[in-house]
Amino acid sequence: MNFYEEDPQLRALLKDLMDEEFFEYADRELRAFGEKCANEIDQRARFTDREGQPKLIKFDAYGDDISEVWVNDGYRKTVEDSYNTGIVGYVHKEIPELGHRGNYIYSYAQGYLLSQTEPGFYCPVTLTMATAYLLDQYASSELKEKFLPHVLSTGETTLYEGATFLTERQGGSDVGANLVKAVQTSDGYKLYGEKYFASNAGMCGAAMVLARKEGAPAGTKGLTLFAAPWRKDDGKLNSIKIRRLKDKLGVRAVPSAEVEFEGAEAYVVGDPTKGFYYMMEALNLSRVCNTVASLGIMRRAYREAREYALKRDAFGKKLADFPMIKDSLVKMAVKLEVETRTVFKYLPLFEKVMRNEPGVSEKDIVLNRLYIALLKKETAEQAVHFAHEAIEMHGGNGYIEDFVTPRLLRDAQVLTVWEGTANILGLEVLRLMEKFNAGGLFLEEMKVRIAGMNGEHVDQVRGGIEQLEKLLVSLQTASYDHKTFHSKRVAELMVKIFESVNALEHSASGDERAEKVTEVYMEETWRSGHEFNERLKSVDYFDVVMAIEKLEKETAV
Hints:
Radius of gyration: 24 Å
Strand order of the largest sheet: 6-7-11-9-8
């Protein structure tokens, strides 16, 4: 079993997005990592979820508070296996074999494979990516020298996993209400206060923390970004205590804690007045990671549903021989493929903006933020739906922990919450429209991309664009309550248009399978589900979309 080899659409996408030399390297490395994810990492993930969850060791034998987090040996091996691939490090440093650094596309391809087996651990990877970005982009040369070699480690030095501590009990998503304070001393700053939902606590080597300096204004403008090592140079705790670990529904692999700072040494990162702005940039990176994790769960759920349907006998047939089952599987396959293509095709823009490459425009920056909000919301919701579909395909077996399906559902549910709920993302879309004309820029971009295209499906997208135009005009003069009420509806219509445009572009290549995938996707997206269909496209196209001959041979082995 190999998650990468089983996914020819991903491989084709990467070949299209990478230069020849980089793809040759990535193809080989992803094949090795895909095999590891599908086997030993998957076995470790099962053990961690069921029996080997992180545990807080609060006190030592003498009663001293040591606030250590125990994780099992298999989890530690997954940490080593993953970071040594360069999933974080090679985004920022040179790949020795190639003589240049990697990119986010390669890292997110690794994350997509990892999330099919251990989405819980992809959370610490995400936090380490965010930490690396903030340090590399904004830290002083002294701070970079102190932290970056460890945060970017691929095995050559001690690894410092990262963390980003924002949430406090009194504020939650209202970060402006944060109270953790930073007190200046003769040799730097010390942090005091509590962070209420601190993921990767006890495992991180460095945490990026938002705190308020004495005398700073209220709200988000008064927040400064600090880098706080978990331990001092002598190995002792940096005046940080863990109150307790959270007992979570899913993603049990990652220790999430309530953390108390009692004079922890910390270092200012960048401009002291821009802490919230910096952290929001890191949040956008994390939202893309969340999107990729959602795709990974969708892929695994689809795979489990497909394999079960091909093997399971019922009423004298294989499950996969029944039209309703074919319909479910094809719709899953099509939605997954179009959504994965949309995300990965967007990533070059993300890379351009995050690295502030020459030629980055204000339009690029606005569309980048908009696409992140749209895709994070949509993929997270689809991950829950796909996990539900996989359980239903298995029947009673799908509800039993002997199968991976219950864990997929438990792990998927957090992705709708992490890095912003649908309501928060709807407000982000509204804010972008009102402050930066994101709606107009989106419409302009989509119209350009389908210009010159013709046909029934193109007309459906043009109809969606007209509907969006009318909605945006109405919102211009609407009350604030009406604007917020409709914000998620705007996001949902935008993502339908965005994904449809990507599907149409792919089908324009002339590939028969791509054309059939697009037909099914467009019918499912734009047509009423309550009409009688003479033509059952999802059933008729089953063999082509599912590449069924190849699958049957694999299943028979």
